[in-house]
Write a structure and sequence with these properties.
Blueprint: H1 4-7, E1 11-14, E2 17-21, E3 28-33, E4 38-41, H2 47-61, E5 67-69, H3 75-78, E6 88-92, H4 95-101, H5 103-112, H6 117-125, E7 132-134, E8 137-141, E9 146-151, E10 161-165, E11 174-182, H7 198-209, E12 214-219, H8 225-239
Parallel strand pairs: 4-5, 5-6, 6-7, 11-12
Antiparallel strand pairs: 1-2, 2-3, 3-4, 8-9, 9-10, 10-11
InterPro entries: Metallo-B-lactamas (IPR001279), NDM-1-like (IPR050855), RibonucZ/Hydroxyglut_hydro (IPR036866)
Organism: Streptomyces bugieae
Protein name: MBL fold metallo-hydrolase
C-alpha cells in the first residue's frame, strides 16, 4: 500500500523523512518531520516550486514547515525560499552575505538554465537570506527529533551544508548531501567550485554519516557510502588531489 508521502509524489526514506526529485533540474528536496517542527531541505528553483512544496508538506502532515535548511547557493536549490514566509532559514556561514552580494548573478544563472525571466527576477528580489549561520555543526530540535546541520564544505561551492537525520527503530541514518554528491551524472564543478578541496569535504561527509548511512544526493538516486567514497576518489583523480589515507 502506498504511503501518504508516496501519494503526494514523495519518496519515503524513513519514519518522518522523505524526499522529492523536482521536475526540470532533478534537484532533490527533503523533508524531516518531528513532533514539534518540520524541516525542509532546499526549496526548489522558483517561488511557485516553493509554494507547491509548502502545500504538499501541509497536505501530508497537516502542519506547516517551520525550518528551512539550504545545502548550497545554487538557484535550483534556493529560489523557492521566499514561499516559506516566517520560517527559520539555516545556511552555511557566509551564505547570507553571498545572497546579499550576488542576487543578480543568481538571477542570471537561473535564466541561463531555463527559468522564466520574470519568475527568476521575482524569486531573486524576494530571496530570503539565512537567519542562522552554521560554522561547524548545529543541532536543531524538532520536538522528539534532532537534526544535525554540518558545514562540511567547501567543495561544490564555498558554502556546502549537509543535513544528518538519525535513524529510528532500526532505520539507517540519512544524510542530505546537496550537490557535494550527484548520482545522475558527473558532479558539476562550476566557476564557484573549489575542486581541490572537494574530496576533503566528502571525507567529512563520510565521517558524519558513516558506512551504514543512506546518502541523498542533490541530483539522482539515493546512494550508499561506497558510492560516495568512489565519487570522492574520482574527484581526487580528476583534480589531482592525493588519495585519502
Amino acid at each position: 500500500m502506498r504511503t501518504a508521502w508516496e501519494e503526494a509524489g514523495w519518496e519515503r526514506l524513513g519514519e518522518g523523512v522523505a524526499r522529492r526529485r523536482m521536475p526540470g533540474w532533478d534537484e532533490t528536496v527533503g523533508v524531516i518531520a518531528g513532533s514539534a517542527g518540520v524541516m525542509i531541505v532546499d526549496t526548489g528553483a522558483t517561488l511557485r516550486d516553493g509554494a507547491d512544496l509548502r502545500r504538499s508538506v501541509r497536505g501530508v502532515l497537516g502542519r506547516e514547515v517551520t525550518h528551512v535548511a539550504l545545502t548550497h547557493p545554487h538557484f535550483d536549490h534556493v529560489l523557492g525560499t521566499a514561499a516559506f514566509a516566517g520560517v527559520a532559514v539555516f545556511g552555511a556561514a557566509g551564505l547570507a552575505e553571498l545572497f546579499r552580494r550576488d542576487k543578480d548573478a543568481l538571477r542570471h544563472d537561473a535564466v541561463r538554465h531555463g527559468v522564466d525571466r520574470d519568475a527568476a527576477a521575482e524569486a531573486a528580489d524576494l530571496l530570503v537570506t539565512p537567519h542562522h549561520h552554521v560554522h561547524g555543526q548545529l543541532t536543531v530540535e524538532l520536538g522528539d527529533r534532532q537534526v544535525l546541520l554540518a558545514n562540511v564544505g567547501p567543495g561544490h561551492t564555498a558554502h556546502d551544508l549537509a543535513v544528518l537525520v538519525p535513524g529510528r527503530h532500526g532505520d539507517p541514518e540519512i544524510v542530505f548531501c546537496g550537490d557535494l554528491v550527484e548520482e545522475s551524472g558527473e558532479p558539476s564543478a562550476g566557476p564557484d567550485a573549489l575542486p581541490r578541496q572537494w574530496p576533503a569535504a566528502l571525507d567529512r561527509l563520510l565521517a558524519l554519516g558513516g558506512d551504514d548511512a543512506r546518502y541523498v544526493p542533490g541530483h539522482g538516486a539515493v546512494v550508499d557510502a561506497a558510492f560516495v567514497r568512489a565519487q570522492r576518489d574520482a574527484l581526487a583523480a580528476r583534480f589531482g588531489v592525493p588519495p585519502s589515507s
